[in-house]
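Key result, reporting period 2: structure in, sequence out.
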């Protein structure tokens, strides 16, 4: 039986742990705080509601990361991308040869960041680091031990770093999640980052409404008006231009909605509003939310940083970052992933592509 550890017991982690258990996989679940998983530690059960219903039993839940990943072939990391570095540092001493770490999702540069942490710490274990392009579910947590899956995406691209290890990754993906599709490399997964398009700008442009209603409106269906959708199209266009510099054809946000949810529209606004999977997804109650705290520094900042490396302007993306800085009193340019923090400063495009494909810098 395939043994999988799920790292992170938020709504996504709990939903994923239960879904994998439903598929007959031996699942352990880790969370750093006891309170969130106390009921699961005791019962070892998670209830799913929505598109999948039932109560599913996992192997165990724990607050000890060494215990959670011991003897596990696959480590599914389901935490906000700003925690990837910390999780990698905590896992590093306990990793075993042959294990596969999959970031769900990596956002932009996630696998590169985790690989850089392991290299910096001198970890010699032969592990694969991979990343998913997005999270498999649209989900929310009702209570500890209860998760609601609004929609399961049709397919999610996943790639290993380096891409030459994709065949090893494929063998495990086929056993674990039929919705996972092998992508050519992490350029494809990192820069087809649709969260960068759909999350920060929508939240910022709805900030007053969020703060005066505590998010009591449907985030996508009410928060994205025709004019907001036009801003998202600009963000998407800049993202795609940066991705094209790697010689990889991007999926536009509208194309992705069709790929992931089977929805179409004459423009992005129509496609979003034709997506039944967004029904019932409410806005966060505060702007201090992962839609900014994760997606600005770990999505928009690295896309802008790579754009600068290619001498491409990203004015709308940059504007969203500056607004987030002003609204939250933070400096996401400093906090976020950049070409420099990922260890790629001064590297040529050819060198970066060789690293992505072969793992050599």
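The corresponding designed sequence is given below.
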């Amino acid at each position: 039986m395939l043994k999988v550890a799920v790292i992170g017991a938020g709504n996504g982690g709990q939903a994923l742990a239960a879904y994998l258990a439903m598929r007959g996989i031996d699942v352990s679940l880790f969370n750093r705080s006891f309170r969130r998983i106390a009921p699961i530690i005791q019962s070892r059960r998670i209830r799913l509601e929505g598109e999948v219903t039932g109560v599913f039993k996992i192997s165990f839940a724990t607050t000890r990361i060494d215990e959670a990943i011991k003897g596990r072939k696959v480590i599914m990391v389901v935490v906000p991308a700003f925690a990837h570095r910390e999780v990698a540092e905590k896992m590093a001493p306990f990793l075993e040869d042959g294990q596969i770490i999959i970031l769900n999702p990596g956002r932009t540069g996630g696998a590169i960041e985790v690989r850089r942490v392991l290299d910096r710490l001198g970890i010699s274990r032969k592990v694969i680091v991979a990343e998913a392009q997005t999270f498999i579910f649209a989900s929310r947590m009702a209570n500890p031990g209860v998760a609601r899956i609004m929609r399961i995406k049709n397919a999610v691209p996943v790639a290993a770093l380096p891409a030459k290890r994709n065949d090893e990754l494929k063998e495990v993906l086929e056993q674990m999640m039929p919705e996972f599709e092998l992508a050519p490399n992490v350029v494809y997964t990192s820069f087809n980052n649709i969260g960068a398009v759909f999350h920060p700008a929508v939240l910022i442009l709805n900030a007053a409404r969020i703060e005066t209603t505590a998010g009591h409106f449907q985030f996508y269906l009410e928060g994205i008006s025709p004019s907001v959708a036009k801003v998202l199209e600009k963000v998407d266009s800049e993202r795609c231009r940066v991705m094209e510099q790697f010689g990889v054809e991007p999926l536009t946000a509208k194309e992705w909605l069709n790929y992931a949810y089977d929805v179409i529209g004459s423009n992005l606004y129509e496609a979003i509003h034709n997506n039944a999977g967004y029904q019932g997804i409410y806005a966060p109650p505060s702007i201090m939310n992962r839609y900014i705290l994760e997606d600005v520094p770990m999505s928009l900042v690295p896309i802008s940083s790579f754009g600068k490396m290619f001498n491409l302007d990203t004015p709308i993306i940059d504007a969203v970052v500056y607004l987030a800085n002003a609204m939250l009193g933070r400096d996401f340019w400093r906090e976020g992933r950049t070409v420099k923090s990922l260890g790629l400063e001064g590297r040529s495009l050819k060198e970066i592509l060789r690293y992505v494909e072969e793992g050599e810098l």
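The radius of gyration is 19 Å. DSSP finds 18 helices and twelve strands in the chain. This case is discussed further under Risks and Mitigation.
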